């Protein structure tokens, strides 16, 4: 341990939802083209607060940290919404290149060529932690064990 304590955690939440980072975005693009992908991204951004933000903020806060969501900053969201979908992602390109294209190009410009071509790997699957607790729950499910009965 380096001995330096931080109180703020920067998260990448919102990047996948706005820059077509999920495999379901590729499927939507293949089935419905750029218009279908644009519609899917708008829907995902619209529901991000109910699906992800509260959960992630609680988990981070439970560890005594404050979460910051730079990809959900109003100016960032406005900028990304002003761009046509083909400037944010090119899903005709292979996995690990076409999704989140705008971020990949920025990584190249910043001298991070290795990071620019890594395919997405969700933490719970990439670390295999999801296999440790298999209760048939999906990440989008509301946990019944934590809900107050009426």
TrEMBL record:
Q: Name one GO molecular function term.
A: asparagine synthase (glutamine-hydrolyzing) activity
What InterPro entries does this protein map onto?
Answer: Asn_synthase (IPR001962), Asn_synthetase_domain (IPR051857), Rossmann-like_a/b/a_fold (IPR014729)
Respond yes or no to whether keyword Amino-acid biosynthesis is given for this record.
Answer: yes
* Pfam families given in the database record: Asn_synthase
Q: Which GO terms describe its biological process?
A: asparagine biosynthetic process
Where in the numbering of this chain does the Asparagine synthetase domain appear? 33-127
Source species, domain of life: Eukaryota
Sorted alphabetically, which keywords does the UniProt record give?
Amino-acid biosynthesis, Asparagine biosynthesis, Glutamine amidotransferase
Question: Does the UniProt entry include the keyword Kinase?
Answer: no
Q: Which residues cross the membrane?
A: none
From the Swiss-Prot or TrEMBL record, give the protein name.
Asparagine synthetase domain-containing protein 1
Q: Which gene encodes it?
A: ASNSD1
């Amino acid at each position: 341990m380096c001995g330096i304590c931080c109180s703020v955690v920067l998260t990448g939440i919102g990047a996948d939802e706005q820059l077509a980072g999920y495999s379901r975005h590729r499927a939507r693009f293949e089935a419905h083209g750029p218009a279908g992908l644009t519609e899917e991204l708008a829907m995902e951004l619209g529901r991000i607060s109910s699906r992800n933000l509260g959960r992630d903020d609680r988990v981070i806060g439970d560890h005594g940290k404050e979460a910051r969501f730079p990809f959900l900053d109003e100016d960032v969201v406005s900028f990304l919404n002003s761009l046509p979908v083909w400037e944010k992602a090119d899903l005709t390109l292979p996995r690990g290149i076409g999704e989140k294209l705008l971020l990949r190009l920025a990584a190249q410009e910043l001298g991070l060529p290795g990071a620019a071509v890594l395919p997405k790997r969700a933490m719970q699957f990439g670390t295999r932690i999801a296999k440790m607790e298999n209760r048939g729950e999906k990440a989008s499910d509301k946990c019944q064990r934590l809900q107050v009965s009426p």
